[in-house]
Amino acid sequence: MGNVATRKRPGCHHTARSDENEEEEDGPARKRLRIAENHTENEYQKLAFKSRLQKLKNCRPHLKKGTYKVEEADPRPPLPRFIVDDYDNYEKPETANRKEFAIPWFEHLFLPEFPTRSVINEKSFILERQLGRGSFGVVYCASAIHDSERKFAIKMQEKREIISKRAVLQVKREASIQRLLPAHPFIARTYSTWQTRTHLYSLLQYPTGSTGDLFSIWRQRGSLSEAAIRLIGAELASAIDFLHRNDVIYRDVKLENVVLDQWGHALLIDFGLAKKLKPGCSTGTICGTLQYMSPDVASGHTYSHYVDWWSLGVLLHILLTGIYPYPNSEATHHANLKFIDYSTPIGCSREFANLMDRMLAVSQTHRLCSFTVLHAHPFFRSINFSKLEQKDYTPASEIGNAEYDTYQQNDETLDDALFKENYDFDRFDYFNDRF
Ligand SMILES: Nc1ncnc2c1ncn2[C@@H]1O[C@H](COP(=O)(O)OP(=O)(O)OP(=O)(O)O)[C@@H](O)[C@H]1O
């Protein structure tokens, strides 16, 4: 078929074709004649030739006449040298090499927080049992392959889930904050992180002989004694203060994020919502667990580290009374959170009642918003924080000795009387004189 298109048909005049034939037939003589006919072009060539000849004569006067060789001008524009050189000298990587060094995007996405080649990896451990479930995967208790006595928690998160929920930055931030944080007795350490093609792994501190997270403990045993709450509260306060001093706002203090070891010491886990925030700076992301969320976060205005003290207040309130301080148990959106109808817990010590009033005050002027104030509060007066951080106290001995009876919440007359008395007295004592 291709031949049909180029075949000369009878009666059809092909100009280009006939010129080519003429050239072929007459040779260079015929070509010269055609150039001569084109007068303008010819004149131009002559002038150009003369000018180049003159230039050559000027720069090489020692050469005799007639020995010059002028080459025909190249009709194409000169190629920029650097492109030609680059192209000529460019060493294309071997196909095999390229395959070896290429990092797939779903691995690259989680670098450098989750390295792809780690000395410690999932093959170094034996997974024993499941400890809990998070948004993107499962947390296992694991023992080191060469030392079965050493226990760790391994958090295994699915990359697919993380990407589909657009939480890549969140998990990377969590890993980097936890890994850079200095050691603290009440914060779970992150020893290592790595990734496979499908999963992210975090090797975490496992509390020795863990009795589970605080939520499960509270659900099994009910309300805790004030003595136990004092020790657990003080340990968590020490951990939160440490985070703030290291420019970290935690934003997710809740029962589920505290695990206890066999002596009842608290360990703060899950830095999924933590953020680097310098003192005096504020942030505005509405995040956290609704029932623990402070009015400042829920309002959508900017807030700072102090919101963690509100959440700790909610946690301590639940540990003692078994209920949330504000009617938000059914809330599904931050805009629906209500900060009304608070009543001071009754049937507890005046110190604890006052601590709750202070930590859960909606007005920031009345609210307890710093470790210094908490540390000096009468509820924690008996605690030596240096000894606490040395783990000199044993909260386990106090856990389970509940003294608080939740039915007293219904006695409204007593409730009101106690609230007024405590509030006025304490307000004078702590706001004006001491804090
Ligand atoms: N270091 C640890 N030691 C013991 N148990 C742990 C540890 N880390 C996590 N767990 C258990 O696993 C559960 C889920 O862990 P975690 O909350 O860290 O996961 P997550 O994926 O960050 O979840 P979330 O959806 O709350 O962000 C916890 O509630 C706890 O019971």
From TrEMBL:
Origin superkingdom: Eukaryota
Binding residues annotated for ATP, in chain numbering: 155
Recorded coiled-coil stretches: none
Q: Does Kinase show up as a keyword for this record? A: yes
Q: Pfam families per the record?
A: Pkinase (PF00069)
The ranges of region (Disordered) come to 1-38
Instruction: Enumerate the Gene3D superfamilies for this protein.
Output: Phosphorylase Kinase, domain 1 (3.30.200.20), Transferase(Phosphotransferase) domain 1 (1.10.510.10)
Q: Where is the signal peptide?
A: none
Keywords, in A-Z order? ATP-binding, Kinase, Nucleotide-binding, Serine/threonine-protein kinase, Transferase
Q: Where is the composition biased (Basic residues)?
A: 1-15
Q: Which InterPro entries match?
A: Kinase-like_dom_sf (IPR011009), Prot_kinase_dom (IPR000719), Protein_kinase_ATP_BS (IPR017441), Ser/Thr_kinase_AS (IPR008271), STKc_AGC (IPR045270)
Keyword set includes ATP-binding: yes
Q: Which residues form the Protein kinase domain?
A: 125-380
The GO molecular function terms of this record are: ATP binding; protein serine/threonine kinase activity
So what family is this one in?
Belongs to the protein kinase superfamily.
This protein is called what? Protein kinase domain-containing protein
Species lineage: Eukaryota, Metazoa, Ecdysozoa, Nematoda, Chromadorea
